[in-house]
Request: fold
Amino acid sequence: MMSHPSPAAFLDQAAALLGPRGLTTDPERMAAWLTDWRGRYTGRALALASPASTDEVAALVKLCAAHRVPIVPQGGNSGMAGGATPDDTGTAIILSLRRMDAIRSLDATAGMAVCEAGVILQTLHEAAEAAGTRFPLTLGGKGSATIGGLVSTNAGGTQVLRHGTMRAQVLGLEAVLADGSVFDALTPLKKDNRGFDLKQLLIGSEGTLGIVTAATLRLLPAPVGRVTAWVGLGGIVDARSLLRRVERDMGEALEGFEVVPAHCLDAVLAHLPAARAPLQAAHAWNALIECVSASADSAALRDRLETSLAAALAEGLIEDAVIAANDRQAEAFWTLRDSISAAERAIGPAMQHDISVPVEKMPEFILAASPAIESAFPGTQAVAFGHLGDGNVHFHVLAPPGAVRGEWEESHGKAISAQVHDLVTQWGGSISAEHGIGQMKVAELARLHDPVALGLMHAVKRALDPLGLLNPGKLVTVPPAACT
Reply:
């Protein structure tokens, strides 16, 4: 039988370990961290723990294991799948890594930085830029997302096309395991053949196998040239053709290729009164293209991209295009792209799906899935936008006018998501491209994922977290082992 020591005894020992800054049970101080960023999930917690070092995390995890207290790790609380929100039992602690926010070292010559889990992505960007380098991963929530959260969810963003997901940026890792032991693999080795690559097992595990406390991350030389273009297109198939053309013409300089349908652009323009459409006429689809080089200057990149787009225009592949005159205009283009989710949230309820299919199939998937969903659920509108270059779009289904937020998602939303996920699976894709599984997609993963892969995941979870205390109810659920 499972024994459960007194919560009061645990809290007393945790308070002695962490001090007044490191532990609170004050409902007002905890309230902001009990609801996820989307507002879909709200839970309760026994306490909010904020350790200041890896040693404190390790000691706290040992204490939790001794008292059978579940742990919900949390970074910036900006996740999209409810992966950092506790359940409603009030038995778990939230383990916040936000106080662990030091950049332990940054070596521009070696091209690496060692960051603690609580370092905010934008802070790393600024530190890298000050050293004449850059960290090649960015996303709309860079002002709140933390390194630990990005590692734990294997975050993507707008530069995956060239640089890959967070997995590709992590050179070394430090994490506290379920028994409180510290896995220290921060030293980067290009060649290491001592068996399993354990750091890769922890990356993307959403805090269910260990708690990331620090990471060694790769840095790249600062770009010498940057050019950004906004392109109007007649259709999503044309966007794929344009992607292939620009890939051929620009080579490794192509870093981002985002697609934005007219509905999304209109929503952003209504949401941001100061925003302006980049092109005079409206277009069914738009592409946001960014090219960056550490060797060619902006003028040279601009000439190459102008030549590529001119040829596309002459072929009738695109309808119009504008290249940003400066960084300020380029950032204005990106603000339009990064504001889509907020603009749609202001319109009303929506079911938001983070899906991927092979790049070559994506336009046809969108053209098939959108009318299928709208026909099955009258009054809805399906919109797709995002990272066409790496086969990942955000497939949102907007509720009919007048739908009540909260009620509609529970009544119709789950059926909509199930059908979207069925379609994605039929097209050989993934129901989670970059946001993770969290608690939002646990049941769908169990329903649709390969049983062999699920079995392996369950076996790993049981081996590394036999008590089932690390982020229970997220990603993969395994009953805790019986113990006394």
Q: What stands out?
A: The domain at 225-340 is CATH 3.30.70.2190 (Alpha-Beta Plaits). The chain is about 35% helix and 20% strand. The chain has four domains: 7-99, 103-221, 225-340, 348-444. The first strand starts at residue 23 and ends at 24.
